[in-house]
Design goal:
The chain is an all-alpha fold. Helices cover about 65% and strands about 0% of the residues.
Length: about 280
Amino acid sequence: MMNAWPRIPLESRTTILVRASELAEDNADMDFTALACIGLADEFPEVRAKAADALWETIDRAVAPLLRDRLDDEDSEVRTAAASSLRQFVALREQGRFDATEGDAVVEALRARAEDPVEAVEVRAAALETLGVRTLPWVADLIADAYDAEERELQLAAIHAMGQSADERWLDYLHEQFYAEDPQFRFEAVMSAASVGSEESVPALAELLHDQDGEVVVAAIEALGEIGGDAAVEALREYAPDAPAEFSDLVALSVDSARGGFGLLLDVDSAEDDPDA
């Protein structure tokens, strides 16, 4: 395959990698890691970028140094894709389930990209998001600096990284963004609050159930389901009668999840009538 790969037309090579990634996402039994690794060495940056994208889910230890090398690629799109796809390995290093030497090399390579003031902002943002899961003091400093940065991409990356950290220290920042004018900031803050999982977020999330942006509302419904607890259940049940029809199933699922997932799929209209349900 390696010898035949360069003879495949360029457009076909990118299409193959995109399709392989889609198939692998839909079917856990399909593994195109070897194919994507071939693509990482392609002469064309668009192919290398698609190959790096296709490796976002792999935990094959041999892939980590290959993606780390792509952080020095001449093309910023390739560097961005590589930074994002290294997230699994940073998480494994955080959990102590990955070789410390290689894991630390990955983290330091990402740090170099995130801290480089002349690096493309999308690369710095991707590197920061990936580093969010690593509980090191300098990572927290990077997140705080990016939150106060002028670039929108870095601010959003900081909010995302706060969620990756699952650290309650960031709750005040996230709650502040619940009221941001930009709906993308509200959405990212809600998603991160769900990852942190603190019941302190429930009252403000309940308010966002009436947000003007549908994606924010959906995120808030799901976040309340993930955080759970009596207050989250009450907020969802109070919202249920006013929820648009297309959200009703999601609300029911989130109520069930917030209650611990032990019940059958809840009929929220019936639950409204029965306070002991």
